[in-house]
Amino acid sequence: MRITESNFYSETSHSLLFTCFDSKKQRKTDSFRVHHHAELELGYICSGEGDYILADSRFRAKTGDLFLVRANEQHCVPTVYTDELVSFNIHFSSYFLWNICVEYIPLGVLRVLVCNSPVKHCFCGMGGEILEIKELCENAESNRFEIKLKMVELMCKIARKIGAEQDGGAIYDFTEFKHIDDIQNAIAYINTHLTEKIKLGDIAKNSRMSSSHLSSVFKKHTGVTPYEYLLLQRVDRAAAMLRRTDISVLSLAGECGFGSLANFNKIFKKVTGMTPSEYRKSKQENNQGSGLQ
Known about the structure:
Blueprint: E1 6-9, E2 16-28, E3 40-47, E4 49-54, E5 57-62, E6 66-69, E7 75-76, E8 80-92, H1 94-100, H2 107-114, E9 122-123, H3 127-137, H4 140-165, H5 180-192, H6 200-206, H7 211-222, H8 226-244, H9 249-255, H10 261-272, H11 276-286
Antiparallel strand pairs: 1-2, 2-8, 3-6, 3-8, 4-5, 4-7, 6-9
Helix pairs in contact: 2-4, 3-4, 5-8, 8-10, 8-11
């Protein structure tokens, strides 16, 4: 059974926690479509074999491999050696990481998971946990509570693996984490006003910080700047509409907060590796799952 996009929310704040989806790629050679997004991603290879590019590294991906992609990290699958490569993907929101996982994962390790510092990208021997979550997602509505528990357990296990590779004597400045609630307010404000003209000053005022301070701590907690987050979320919204509707690209640009069609095309291609029209055609031809894969 294929997993279409399934979104999981917090019952208390109604904030997005994570999104699960399948992705299928057909046999290809050196077809580069590098893309990035605002969320932390886990990509598990269910079947097939190919190359996986993450940042400056290239991996030979095979069944059972699990890849960690951090916010704003360029990645793609340029080559598929088998007839098909099937992956199960999970996008984690910053809310899930900093409001849920923070209770169970050391802050220093959580910071490494999110931000740009050396970290292992590929993990083996975790197929059991991933496949269990995938199976639960096939009936997501009935299994939502158990899926959320399994997700926390999965992130804790990955954190332990990463933590074991870090310097056990490292000292972290925990005062940096006092703005977690303010950052979540900033994210909520951006998501609520995604299609409107938003200024950094408006976001900062809502978050009770100066613009410069907001930019600094926002990137420390999410891996991207407020403006990068805004653009990536707009592109993600546009990609979903391209997959699910027949709305014209011109109308879609306006509905997703882009000032002009030219600007929309430029930013969308920079993020996804395709123009909006190419992206829609690709999804229709391949009948792939969700996500900017």
